[in-house]
Each structure stands twice: as structure tokens, then as C-alpha cells.
Design goal:
The complex is a heterodimer of chains A (378) and B (200).
Chain A (H helix, E strand, L loop, with lengths): L1 E3 L13 H12 L4 H6 L5 E3 L17 H5 L5 E6 L4 H13 L4 E6 L15 E10 L4 E6 L5 E6 H8 L22 E6 L8 H16 L7 E3 H17 L5 H30 L2 H25 L5 H49 L22
Chain B lengths: L16 E5 L10 E2 L16 E2 L9 E4 L2 E4 L11 E4 L2 E7 L3 E8 L3 E9 L4 E8 L13 E5 L2 E3 L4 E3 L4 E8 L6 E5 L2 E14 L2
Parallel strand pairs in B: 2-3
Antiparallel strand pairs in B: 1-16, 4-5, 6-16, 7-15, 8-14, 8-16, 9-10, 9-15, 11-14, 12-13
The chains are: A alpha+beta (378), B mainly beta (200).
Chain lengths: 378, 200
Amino acid sequence: MRVELPGIAFWRHDLGNCLQSAVGSILQFDGLDPLEFLGSSWNFEYTINDVRREEYYFPCWRDSIVASMAPHYRVSSTWHTPKDAAHGWEQVRAVVAGGRPVAVAVDNYYLPFRPAYRDVHTNHLVVVFGFDDQRGTVAVIDAVPPRFRGEIAIRQLTMARDSSNPVSHERDMFFTAQPIANRWLEIAAVGPHPAIDEDRLCAVLTANVAAYEGALDGGERFSGLPGLRRFMAEAASRLAGRDPAVVDEVFVVAGVALAVAGLHGDFLTGVARRLSLPLLAAIARDVDRIAHHWSAVRIIVGAGRDDPATAGRSLARRSSLLLADQARVLERMKQTIVDCAAHSAHSAHSAHSAHSAHSAHSAHSPVCLPTPTGEGKT
Amino acid sequence: MNRRGAMNNGPSLRASRFSCLPLNDHFDGTGLTARDGLAEGALNIWGNSLPAEELPVPGSVVTVGGVPFLFPASNSARGDNLRCRSQRLLVPSGRWDWLHVLCAAERRTEDPLLVEYAEGTTREQWLRVSDFWPETPPRFGELLAFRCGQLNYPQHAQHGMIPSIWAQRIPMTVPTGIRGVQLPENPAMHLFALTLQAQP
């Protein structure tokens, strides 16, 4: 039997990693916009010691990993852990034969198209979208540079999926010592998925700002802005105190925060452009600035092993800047939501009045967000 | 594109005055490696580096977008690039309009650098640097200075991984002169060269 699913394509965000790329490719295959799905949510959630040594780590604060990435949509995912390699291939083959691409966990050490091939072990995610039983090959797509779309031997994929992912030298950092275990990720998006208009945008912003209030923050759960404050303070303190676990933990969590902020910034930019909302574009730029703080955090920590005391002080200073900017952009979002609500109320009133007077004058407004002059309500 | 890949895509700036600032004393890492020195690479924590053979002759002056840069010498004991860690760079006294850098970042990032003016005041100006990682376009309008055909790893060269070095510029214009600049505290940013420009 030979299967190659049509319509699979690369998808990548420059601040994301293999998780966003793999999920994005599958969402795109389903005719959905990955940037809307993965970029509409913006929050901070982390439970202490939750981090896993996987390039595709994401804090699972909802029912599933993909639901946690796209909480504004009806999407879910399931991690499958087959009993062995043969069972693992049997499962993946059946799903692909049924017309669905799947994401599979792999150790790059065994994949000839990865730079880490026969060099470094690491826990990565690629998408399988076809196979050829007769030739013993499998069709794989991976948007993480160097991007690859093509066939490899099923034997090679099996070795990558069944790897114990050992630490064999000092460059096996962050994403090793975690067996791959033939895991694969099934993703299901259940429609309908409403387009982003001004009302939905306001609903999304409202939910994001509410999540940053951190109502569930406390103890081992770091949630919202209060949780982010605690997380950063503890990270700087632990780094300065030479806690050996802090580098790996903060590097990986910062990578998630970087991707989430980067995606959200670009999501807002796209919506601002489409709906002609210049002030939203300005907020999007502020979110981008938060992402750029996370780029710095990631390297302060990652390059801080040799001099953790200095890195700890540097992280503390960076945290102050990040948190101040984060609070500022959340305030701007709150103001936007207030203006949005006022506009909705006004629009409803105007529509009612217009209807009552049988006026032909439209109550429609092109914006539910303030214009650069602070006006623009109709 | 010239012999070593530099983009000469800017206007002629012959009328300008330039000063290439040597950064050797501030270099703290090896980002450029030759075939026999791959293991020395340290542009990021994974030991990646750019292939020296595909880049300008070490220690030479190379022009990018009409701006001359002093390309780092590979035999510098301190390396060939610096991570931005709040270093204070004194500049030749005078009125400078632009500060140009050859740069690369580990994921795109931005931070203000502090410009120190002759009369004792300071002002922040943004330094924005795009990712050197392959298949990643510039975010901040930089010129592509160099694009290599491979990325070096400690034990091999990966052909088809095409990293970039960017040319970025920062406005400095004030009526009085500039005394120095203090780089941001952001080790994700790497600088390879720095040139000051005064326009007529």
C-alpha cells in the first residue's frame, strides 16, 4: 500500500519550535489558519517541576497540549504511547492510511536530514504524511531548518522513535535523557471556527487579560502576571544560588514564553492590518517587545552556566524590565477592551434608535478600538 | 555580491566620513571557524559557528551597503565577536550621525543602547538585531551583510543550513559630539564590527 496525503505544507514561526511547526502544518492541512489558532492566546502558566526534556514542551494547563496552545478554539490532542516500536508504526500507519497526518516524537540522532544526525541526541517532533509499504519508506515533513519534506526509510524513523535518547556528551543539552518511547500526537480541530472580527477580537483580548490576572496563581502553580513575577524572582535567585536544575528549567520555559509572545504579536499585527486598527498594531508591537525580552532571558540563562552569580543578577535586571513592559501592555489591552465594550453598547443603542426611527442611516462603525486620536466612535 | 558575499546595495557614501572602531579588546567569543577548528565555535551554546572561508579576509576592511567595516581578525585571542553585556565603548571624539554594526542574534531581539554625548548627557537609541539562524528573514529592516552556504557544528559542517550576518544602523544625530556608547545587557546579541559615520 502507498499513501501520500495531499495538501500538507511547511508552516513555521521564527520564534516557535518543532511543536508549533508540527501542529501548524496539521492545522493548515485541515484548512485552518495556524497563526490564528496558535497566536490568539497569550498567558503565562507553569507548574513547578512540570518541565520535560522535550523540544516540544508546552505547559499543559487544559485538557491537552494543543488545547493549551489554542484555548480560544475547539481543538484537542492526544498523546499515544504504544507498547513498542512495531505497535507504534502500526498505529501511525493506520491513521495516515485513514487520511490524517500525525506528529511523531523522534530523536534527531537517527534522522539523516537533521544536523544532529549521528552527533547529538535530542527530542524533536516531525509530521508523518505518507508511507510506501513496498519500498519501506515513510513521508515526513519538518519545517524546522533545514526544512525537509521527503521520504526516509521506515527503519530510520523507527530507530528515531524508539530511541532512549541518551546523554552521550556535553552537547546533549536540554532535550535528552528522556526516552522517545514511540509517542505520537493526534490532533483534532472541531468546527465551526468563527472568523476574527471586532467582537471576537475583544472577546479574545478580554480572556487573555483575565488569564493574566492570575486568579489561580499560588503555591506550585505560577499563573498570570503574579505567577510570572514569582517565577522570574525565583529563577534569578536560584541561578545566583547555583541551583544546577534552574538553567534547563528556565531555558525551556522561556522558550515557550518566547514562542507564545511572538505568535501573539504577529496574530495581533495581522488582525490590526485586516481590520484597519492602528492602535492594535501598536499593542502588537508592544507584545513583540515582550518576545524580545524572552530572547534575552533564554540566553542569559542558557549561557549562564559558567558564571551563574553574574547571570542571576543579569536575569533579575531583565525581569524588572520585562515585568514592567508586560504590565504596561496589559494595561493598554484593558483600555482597548473598555473602549471596545463602550463601542458595542453604543452600536447597539444606535442600531436600536436607527431601527425605531426607520432611518436609513447606518449604525455600523469600522472600528471597535480607539483610533490614534482617541476618537472614532460612531 | 562581492567576492566574499558582502552586499553593496546601498547608495554611494563617498562624501561621508567613517571611523571603523576596533572591537578586539571587547571580543569574548568565537563565532567564525575554519574547517580545522570547528570545535572552537561558540556563537551559541550548541557550539555553532559561521564558516570563516566564506566570509571576508580576517582583519580586512569590507564594505556593506556603502559602509566600511573592520572585519574581525580570526587570530584575535579574545575571539571574533562580542555578546552585548553592557560594555562601554569609547568612540573618537566628533559629531557622528550613524552607528553601523555587523551583527547577529540568537532569536531576534532588541534593547536600547546608551549614547553618551560630549556635554555629559545621555540618550537611549534602539539596537535591533535579527536572528542569524537559517531560513529566518530579517525582522528589523537590516541589510543582509553575509549569507553563508553552511553552518558549522563542533564535529561537522552542515551544508544547506545558511546562516546570516546583518548590517544594522542606529541614529546618533545631535548638535554636539559623541563620547561613547554603552551596549545593552543582552547576551543574545552578537556584534562583529562597528563603524561610525558622519554625514557632510
